[in-house]
Amino acid sequence: MRDHAQVLFELRDVSLTRGGRRVLDSVSAEIQAGATAIVGPSGSGKSTLLRLLNRLADPDAGSISYRGRPLTGYDPPALRREVSLVPQLPSLLPGTVESNLAYAAQLAGRRLDTRRCLELAGLGGDFAARDVAELSVGEQQRAMLARALTQEPAVLLLDEPTSALDREARDAIEATLARLRAELDLSLIVVSHDPEQARRLAERAVRLRAGRVVACGALEEALA
Amino acid sequence: MSTSISVSLGQVAAALVLVALAAAISFWRRTDLERDIGIATVRSFVQLTAIGYAIKLIFEADTIWLVLALLSVMIVFGTLTARSRAKKVPDAFWPLLIGLTVAAAATLGLVVALGIFDPTPRYLVPVGGMVIGNAMTASAVALNRLGDEISESRPAIEATLALGASAREAAEPFVRRALRSGTITLVDSTKTTGLIFFPGTMVGMLLAGADPTDAVRLQLILLYALLGSVASSALVATGLAYRNFFTPAQQLREPGP
After folding, report:
1. Virtual CA dihedral for B134, B138, B143, B145, nearest 10 degrees?
2. pLDDT digits (tens, 9 = 90+) for A99-146
3. How far apart are CA A74 and CA B10, in angstroms?
4. pTM over 0.90
5. Across the interface, which of A76, A104, A147 has its CB nearest the CB of B250?
6. Domain that holds residue A215
7. Between chain A's N and C termini, which has fewer beta carbons within 10 Å?
8. Are residues B214 and B185 in the same domain?
9. Distance, in angstroms, between B149 CA and closest chain A CA?
10. How many domains does chain B have?
11. Residues ≥6 apart with Cβ < 8 Å to B153
12. Which of A51, A72, A91 to mutate to test the interface with B (most CBs of B within 10 A)?
């Protein structure tokens, strides 16, 4: 079992400016193993913060460490396979669901168990041969989840995983994420604009407003 | 294969009647191209006359250094022209310069090494000019396509990087399509050559009174040489240029202003 009391990420005075706008402003926070929600209104810097955690972008100032080591000390592709981002927009590669899973597994040097990954993500084995262009948005979201799972990551970064879904599909994805945590001992960092979703999925939260941290810690304290 | 004819300035002036026709059509149908047609006519006259005298000088001097100097100038101008068409590619100058240089050196080196042409100014200057011109067009088309594809596919590229792909792996499908689009025009025109159009060298040789068999053989050599140079320039330019879209940490750079 991984030690859930350990600190996964530590951010110190992290700032980032894009297009003349201060997207993140002196952000300091500690993200522990387990499930953490990053909440805040639209444009508060949540998705940008998530992208910094697997080095899809780097801050202009400040430092980030992962498991006590500066993020810049990791090989970026290796880090991204361990800290896997499931992006907000459906972004599968053209082809079948299985070809997407196979590509991700091959990048990580893992043996592919298509059926198991699909089942973990709540999809039947018959989805393997489906063309991604024929999937509903909810199915695409699950296929992206299955694709990330082929790499056996330690941390899943989820960017608004249910924003494009109706309530029924949202509940199903949330149930899948809860099951993944229990079965795979994964840490989740979930970006959400919805505090109620944060309450359902996480035990800790980082609350952002206009690029600044307004609260960070145990869920109810952070959301109060 | 050596033939030569004499063309007077009067004959060139007579051909201006057809330029007048083009300008008249533009004026009549209001395509607003009269000024450009005028500029194109004057520029082509000045530029070709200047290069004609330069080539004459180089032929008479009969030294390889002047040939290399002329080809180097052509490569730099070709690079600057291609760069202006590949605006979305950051720092496109070096990939283009290296691509054109490799294409010119490899093609001319091979045609000389294989004994197809003698290493004299009479062969190296015209063949080098054709090679560099075609390589420039192919590299410009390829990099223009690469820039468009990458800027339109940022979410997909970032999603691939997020899976732990390297910049090379994430850009690979776009580089392949860019390389294809840079090469395909010449491949298509080579397929239809002799059926739909007569290429310039062959036309020139026939007009100069050469034997048609000689004209065809020389044209074939040039077409094959151009295929190699176009593919190699587009390969080198795209293979170097895609890197400029990424940081050393395998991140997609923010688009420029």
Report:
1. 150
2. 999 999 999 999 999 999 998 888 888 999 999 999 998 899 889 999
3. 73
4. no
5. A76
6. 7-89+157-223
7. N
8. yes
9. 15
10. 2
11. B174
12. A91
